[in-house]
Design goal:
Elements: H1 2-12, H2 17-31, E1 42-46, H3 51-71, E2 76-82, H4 89-101, E3 110-116, E4 119-122, H5 131-146, H6 152-173, E5 180-183, H7 187-203, H8 215-234, H9 239-243, E6 256-259, H10 272-278, H11 297-312, H12 317-334, H13 339-348, H14 352-370, H15 374-382, H16 386-389, H17 392-399, H18 407-414, H19 421-431, H20 435-443, H21 459-466, E7 470-477, E8 482-489
Parallel strand pairs: 1-2, 1-5, 2-3, 5-6
Antiparallel strand pairs: 3-4, 7-8
């Protein structure tokens, strides 16, 4: 079976990848701690379910098999996938097809794992999304979005990036642990990322972990940032929730990354035949959105931009969508997506009918994946409760005029000065959040895209300011078109 898979892989990989696999076998063998007993080594690679990680797993599998061909034995290969509410079933199907094509299910030297926060389970294509995980992601999405006017990156990506880091720690320490983690990032990208994390920590008034701790030190620094970040998002009165969002860091200080960047061809056009013909990878409308081929959240990011432009700015939904699409298509080209995939996304939003169809799809997805409806998303793009309810009046006037006479009572309820049962229930239904969370929003910060850089303090502004996936624009508010400084951000 192994020989057949390796022959098929050599035929499917880009031509110059075949000798690169053999070169990588030589170098990786030298990097393994147990060179004389190869089966004692465990090597981990992450598979998010997208096109780039599918290629990386295929390349690593080729190295795994070529090492066995050369030495008669090979390392234990651990492939891990972090699950989150934004990962639709179609992604699980792509992962399953990849595993079948690579012969991973039948190989005794392979572990296929799902990471569901702090829980590790065997990969199962048909495993249902845990309700606890959906609630976890939903709360982060709503609380983050309510502090940032539904900004795409803050609403979905900031918490997810910290969760990804934690999943590496959870997966690396599982069972007997791992000896090496393979990454497609270049050594320079790894150094830049570690430096960025350390700079963020210093900016937040924290002391970064000792760099001699290597990956463990990075995880420890990220844990400190995560605790501070989620305290800003969820409030001082929610220590248990903040604590469970920490980054797992108890991995060996000797654990290192091994980069395959110099051996591989990450431009997806170079390995298109491998993806579509050999792996059976499907670029599904639900799973493939803008720069992501393993996550439907960018469709919701575009939707939120449309809703904010339509409802809070009094312009048109399509105008907001156009702002997001312009930003995201530019990002796709920067990431070297094949032009036909860029055009596929552009075509989805090219006409009014296409925009409406995607609006309906995003609405359904928000309801199915996170249990949030349009009313709750509209509430979020106003951010009416955070920062001492700074935008409450505008929200009530625009969306709930029947509650305008109750504005003072609402403010008193949010401040914890009094509680009116029917009013609290209405606010909870409008926002999708509990009264406890609404009060935490009220007492905590509200980030603004129009504020001058440096005037807002905390970890959230530091992350937002240093985020490369953003575009500052002059949006227009109201029919008369008054300009307002704004930001479009996402994936």
């Amino acid at each position: 079976m192994r020989a057949t898979v390796l022959d098929n892989l050599r035929g499917a990989l880009p031509e110059h990848d075949v000798p690169a696999v053999e070169e990588c076998v030589t170098e990786l063998h030298e990097a393994l701690p147990y060179k004389d007993d190869l089966s004692r080594n465990t090597v981990m690679v992450a598979y998010g379910g997208g096109k780039d990680s599918a290629y990386a797993v295929s390349f690593v599998r080729a190295v795994h098999l070529a090492l066995a061909e050369r030495h008669g034995a090979t390392f234990n290969l651990r492939v891990v996938t972090m699950r989150h509410a934004g990962m639709p079933y179609q992604v699980m199907l792509n992962i399953d097809r990849t595993y079948q094509a690579l012969g991973l299910y039948e190989d005794p030297d392979v572990e296929l794992l799902l990471i569901e926060r702090d829980r590790v389970v065997p990969f199962d294509r048909d495993r249902s999304m845990p309700h606890r995980l959906i609630a976890f992601n939903r709360t982060d999405m709503l609380m983050s979005g309510h502090r940032t006017y539904g900004d795409g990156r803050a609403t979905f990506c900031n918490a997810c990036n910290l969760n990804v880091a934690s999943s590496f720690g959870v997966a690396a320490r599982h069972g007997a642990g791992v000896d090496l983690i393979i990454t497609g990032d270049s050594p320079q990208e790894q150094r830049d990322y570690a430096l960025w994390i350390r700079q963020l920590a210093r900016g937040a008034g924290q002391k970064p972990a000792d760099s001699k701790k290597r990956f463990r030190g990075t995880l420890e620094t990220l844990d400190g940032l995560a605790q501070a970040y989620f305290q800003e998002i969820h409030g001082l009165g929610n220590p248990d929730r903040v604590r469970e969002r920490g980054v797992t860091s108890d991995v060996p200080t000797t654990l290192e990354f091994y980069s395959i960047y110099d051996y591989t061809s990450y431009a997806s056009g170079a390995h298109w035949r491998l993806l579509t013909d050999f792996l059976g990878f499907v670029f599904d409308e639900i799973a493939f959105n803008f720069t992501e081929s393993d996550c439907a959240n960018p469709a919701l990011m575009a939707h939120l931009r449309g809703l904010r432009t339509e409802r809070a700015y009094g312009r048109s939904y399509r105008e907001g969508i156009a702002q997001y699409v312009d930003f995201a298509l530019e990002l796709m080209r920067k990431k070297h997506f094949p032009e036909h995939l860029v055009e596929e996304i552009a075509d989805r939003y090219r006409t009014g009918e296409g925009v409406e169809r995607m609006r309906e799809a995003a609405t359904r997805y928000g309801e199915d994946a996170f249990g949030v409806d349009t009313e709750q998303l509209v509430c979020m793009v106003y951010s009416p409760f955070a920062g001492r309810a700074a935008n409450l009046h505008a929200y009530l006037a625009g969306e709930c005029p029947d509650l305008l006479p109750e504005e003072d009572r609402i403010r008193a309820t949010l401040a914890g000065q009094e509680t009116h049962g029917w009013l609290a229930a209405r606010l909870e239904r409008l926002s999708g959040l509990s009264l406890t969370d609404l009060r935490a929003l009220h007492d905590g910060p509200l980030w603004s895209p129009s504020a001058d850089k440096g005037t807002q303090t905390g970890v959230l502004p530091l992350v937002m300011d240093s985020d490369p996936h953003k575009k500052i624009i002059n949006a227009r508010r109201g029919p008369d078109g008054d300009k307002v400084r704004d930001r479009v951000a996402g994936r």
